[in-house]
Queue: 2 jobs
Job 1
Amino acid sequence: MAEDDLDDSELWPVPPAWLMACGQCTRLYQRMVEAREAVAEAELTTASTVDADPFDSGLSTQLALGQHLAREHAELLPDFEPACPRCTTCREDLERPAMSEGASDWAHTAAAEHRARHVLVPPVMTTLL
């Protein structure tokens, strides 16, 4: 599939300037790009029956950057997207009375990590986590 065949929901976002101003973000972002490129190359050069990313390095690098963004830059992340079903779930989880402090912490962390995905991955992929 040529890049011209992709619709906007499949295009990788350009990282915001604030992300590239943080050394840790820059390193994690570069790892994410390198993993994505390596997997794409493997998909082109290996048999279709072979898992091109057996260690899920593409997803792992996205999660590592998302966790960093949620921990260190939560105030810079975009707000919840009204059309995103996962954002709706996160918002509902935050509005629900927490059964414990740990559950509340988990809901805030999960919501921030999901909001980070809106900065990192194409819109079509944001609902996955």
Job 2
Amino acid sequence: MNRQFSEEEMHAADCLQEIQRVINQLHITDESFLEDTKKEIPRLKELLNELEKYAVE
């Protein structure tokens, strides 16, 4: 069964993909791991806030 995805679903999927991309680029073996993680936290929060819009009814 193929169905048409809504704009909201597409946006939520895009946010999840971006979260995955950010997380996948952080490697604990890098000397700058904690610093890099700290730099990415605001972006991750922003993406999670976007996703939260679809969870609140």
